[in-house]
Amino acid sequence: MTGTRPSRDGEGEASVVVQTKPKTKRPPLYKVLLLNDDYTPMEFVVHVLERFFGMSHAQAFEIMLTVHKKGVAVVGVFSHEIAETKVGQVMDFARRHQHPLQCTMEKE
Ligand code: TYC
């Protein structure tokens, strides 16, 4: 809601009213990053991107190749809670399949 606050302006008793901006703070967003390694099979990474990030096969293959060539790629942008959940799901899935795939998040 818009607020007002009285403010002393130097000498005497004069007071001015300053209009404050209505503050609607958007929650911060977090990038989820996938990191390259030499051992995780390409098909496994494609599967992860389809399964946890809702990508089509073609989209997933493209992003997997970007990570493979460049070392890292953003695979999605989410609220803190959703980003944390995605990272956890990917790390858990990779560990269960004994692949060293790494997934992290960082504030946008
Ligand atoms: N570099 C891996 C390979 O050659 C493939 C790979 C791609 C691994 C993306 C991880 O996030 C990754 N098998």
From TrEMBL:
Gene Ontology molecular-function annotations: peptidase activity
UniProt keywords, alphabetically: Hydrolase, Protease
GO biological process, one term: proteolysis
UniProt cross-references to InterPro entries, sorted A to Z: ClpS, ClpS_core, Ribosomal_bL12_C/ClpS-like
Every Adaptor protein ClpS core domain range: 25-104
Keyword Protease attached: yes
Family: Belongs to the ClpS family.
Protein task: Involved in the modulation of the specificity of the ClpAP-mediated ATP-dependent protein degradation.
SUBUNIT field: Binds to the N-terminal domain of the chaperone ClpA.
NCBIfam families: PRK00033.1-2, PRK00033.1-5
Protein name per the record: ATP-dependent Clp protease adapter protein ClpS
Species of provenance: Salipiger marinus
Gene from which this protein is expressed: clpS
